[in-house]
Amino acid sequence: MIRVLMVDDDPVILEIARIFLGRSGDIQVDGVASAVEAVARLKDGRYDVIVSDYVMPEMDGLSFLKWVRSRDPEVPFILFTGKGREEVVIEALNNGADYYLQKDANPKVLYAELTHQIRQAAERMRTKKAVVESEERYRALFENMNEGFVLYEILRNPVGRATDYLVRDANPQIELFTGWRAQEAIGRRASEIFPSEVPPFLEIYSRVDETGCPAKFEGCFPETGRHFSISAFSIGRGRFATIFSEITEQKRMNEELCRAHHQLQEIIDILPDATFVIDEKRTVIAWNRAIEEMTGVSKGEIVGRGPYSYGEPFYGFETPVLIDSIFSEDSGIVKEYDHLSRRGDAVFAEVYVPHLYGGRGAYIWAIASPLFDDDGRIVGAIESIRDVTDRKRAELALREATDYLESLLHYANAPIAVWGPNMKFIRFNRAFERLTGYAAEEVIGKEATILLPDEEREEALAKMAYALEGEGWESVEIPIRCRDGTVRIVLWNSANIRSEKDGTVVATIIQGQEITERKLAEERLIQAHKQLLEIIDFLPDPTFVIDGERRVIAWNRAIEEMSGVPKDEIVGKGDYAYGEVFYGTKRPILIDMIFSKDEDLESLYHYVKREGDTLFAEAYVTPPRTGRGSYVWGTASPLFDRDGNIAGAIESIRDVTEIKETEMALQENEEGLKLVIEGANLGIWDRNVETGEVVRNRRLVEILGCSEGDLVGNVREREEMIHPDDFEGVMAALDDHFAGRSPHYEIDYRLRRKDGRWIWVHDRGQVMARDGAGRPLRMTGITQDITEIRRYHEALQEANRKLKLLSSITRHDIQNQITALSGYVHLLREGIPRDPAAERYIDRIGEVAETIKRQLAFARDYQEMGVKAPEWQRVSEAVRRAAAASPAEISRGQVRLEVETETVEVFADPMLEKVFCNLLENSLRHGGGVTGVRVSFFERERGVEAEGVIAVEDDGLGIPAGMKARIFDQAFGRHTGYGLFLSQEILGITGMTITETGEEGRGARFEISVPRENYRWVSV
Length: 1020
Fold this sequence. Notes:
Layout: E1 2-7, H1 11-22, E2 27-32, H2 35-44, E3 49-52, H3 61-71, E4 77-81, H4 86-94, E5 99-102, H5 107-144, E6 148-156, E7 162-170, H6 173-178, H7 182-185, H8 190-193, H9 202-211, E8 215-221, E9 226-236, E10 239-246, H10 248-270, E11 274-279, E12 284-287, H11 289-295, H12 299-302, H13 312-315, H14 331-334, E13 338-343, E14 346-353, H15 356-359, E15 362-372, E16 378-387, H16 389-407, E17 416-419, E18 425-428, H17 430-436, H18 440-443, H19 457-469, E19 476-481, E20 487-498, E21 505-514, H20 516-538, E22 543-547, E23 552-555, H21 557-563, H22 567-570, H23 577-583, H24 599-602, E24 607-611, E25 614-621, E26 630-640, E27 646-655, H25 657-680, E28 683-688, E29 694-696, H26 698-703, H27 715-719, H28 724-738, E30 745-752, E31 758-770, E32 776-785, H29 787-831, H30 836-864, E33 871-874, H31 875-884, H32 888-891, E34 896-900, E35 904-908, H33 912-926, E36 932-942, E37 945-954, H34 979-988, E38 993-996, E39 1005-1011, E40 1015-1017
Parallel strand pairs: 1-2, 1-3, 3-4, 4-5, 34-36
Antiparallel strand pairs: 6-7, 6-10, 8-9, 9-10, 11-12, 11-16, 13-14, 14-15, 15-16, 17-18, 17-21, 19-20, 20-21, 22-23, 22-27, 24-25, 25-26, 26-27, 28-29, 28-32, 30-31, 31-32, 33-35, 35-40, 36-37, 37-39, 38-39
């Protein structure tokens, strides 16, 4: 917007001018009626253009012009008057007027011309100021930038080959970098400045001049010993420029960081436990030799890979593992592990991993801990894994033995920007774009605070205000927030550009050097040492480290516990002080054999083995502080410096006393188990489900009528012996167990022995191991020859059949007699005279007859109970069948029935329906106005296992507390007394029990407890 001060004593002219000029949209007019008033306005503010009348009271236009020029020689001045005398025009132009315009022209043309002249004058003024400021800005940048900047002219021989180059200009910073003074170098050839035969970098500079393509490379000036990043670019044929950025400190820090990282990697690499480390982005940054051996995956294949890639070597696919629980307590991760626990920040767990060691599988014990920076923020995590297969197998062997027994700025490298007095950006170079991620057009015109992190804003604004008021910054450290939200640390220098007129700051140039990597390198160097100590400290095995002088430099918590010696007492000590901790005297131990071989020292150990640079040994030690003796397994390895020299050593110690005791217990248990199996006269088999291989004991081979040489040890030869009529049933029973539909495999079937004779056998077995997907891997079981038992059973069945037939005939005959008796009772009632005593006797006879009928019905039901094998039955279907056969109140819907067991099946006698019939009849007969019956199912804990509960409850009167324990007794109650007794007996066939748990006055509630193996969930 162009601000115009218009002076005219005619208010109409002022109003018309304001309207016409205001239509342009970019001109703002302030009108005053006299030159005196205009003078007052100009003392308080500035205008881009002044338009003045000539003839005015008190002070005319020429006098006003002279006053303005005495104050500001540059502001555009237009004389706008009705007087058209030539001498007036000449005098006005001589006194500094920029334009002259007469009022008597056509208004449209007049004000269009005036608008044009105002714009032209304002633009000329802006251009002039911009040129001056630009020259000042770039000269200040050139003189004050942190980088060395040199302008050259390339010198070529007559055939066009570059032979030298001439220094045309250089900033003062070049003296600090190169050692030669800028003023002495300007105008001299490079061959005169540098002692070498060929001027430095001549070939690169020649190529930049010939192709016009910039070049960036690193160099070093021996005179100063400093390293630089040099950018060269052409500025016209035969001329080029270079920018020098010092990188000496950055190179030194990178080398320090590499050394620290190398030492950390070496320590992790020689740890005896399989160990890996990830950073906060869950990228693998360390993978030691032990984990390479465990997984078969080399560090070259895994280091640098992203989240969950470390799960693939263990499980065959990318998946979270224990180390991920450091970042989030995901129950999905936790559930995959056995015996998971936390101690402080560390997480411990055990699990079986079938993919390890080329598919051989292993039980592992793992510990994961976070790695913190100095601010306590988690920057990564470490997990160590120990193969505890031997211990676990010993434990599993003991358990299996029990189970057998029980279930058988453009080119500048530095970011440069310029902002005005209002701290709004007006320039933004490419390096700044690369640094911040913002394009220049996104930032120009916006306040510099856009780049300030919230937490640093107040301090940074104070520094910026100081730079505006003073002479600028010198190596001021201010962090900036990039477009992607990251924060970078930058070292800033600044210079102010001031107005020549009044010395006010019109712009500030800032130039930065990013030092984020340097700062991070310093932090990493500190962090690496801290992490190294943390890693050693959290290791589960007692571990200590010595340096090349054999002084203790690390002593972890585990070794404090084992030895009773805290780290404060031992760290820093040498002269074999660590030997005294274990043996009571200062003497060499295993770790000392890393530095030199000692046969006398080796002889003190039970066992010593060397693999490459690592030593392994076994011994029995009794630390004097604790007095606890134990068998230990020690591992010692050297630590190397970057030149491959031994700089120290590390030793880890593992207590193996428990393993030795477990091995002895296992041996004793195996001997006892062998005696039990031989005494039981049972055939024992162990099947590898994947390969079909089968191992059999001697008794099973005898049952099959074979000798050891007759069998190849495959499951198929056993399947070929099964009777064709029984084969499908055997396979179905196996499939049900493999799929988890039955808790174990159990079936009777016929086998043909080698001699051709068919025998009956009873098989019972159970899957002992499954893979991660639930597929069976190993199954064990027993086979018993039940041919003789089967014959006795068949004989017993035949006897039962005859008894059942006799009982059925007897019941039928008695029922007929009872029916006749009931008829005679009816005739007696009609035929004899009314006699109260006689009627009472007749009623009693009728009651006796009904009781006999009910007892016959009970005898029939009791006889049927247990005749058929139990089977899986859906509870909801059994309840509905019972309801259909129950009194009319339920079957017709007069009493509400709610069944909430649609997805539950139970393993029960086929007479389960009779149980629900009795319960429903009990509610209607004795409930006292029951309007609803509800059947539901839930699970509850019972000891160490869960059990299912079928609840049948009504809204009647309930059962008195004194009767609850007696209602299931035989012949208790007002009806037959057999209903609940019979229900209890039917449920007991498959291990179920029934109790009454209702509250008197609120309804009866019967709870049927179902063992865990006798119920299952099914889809609707």
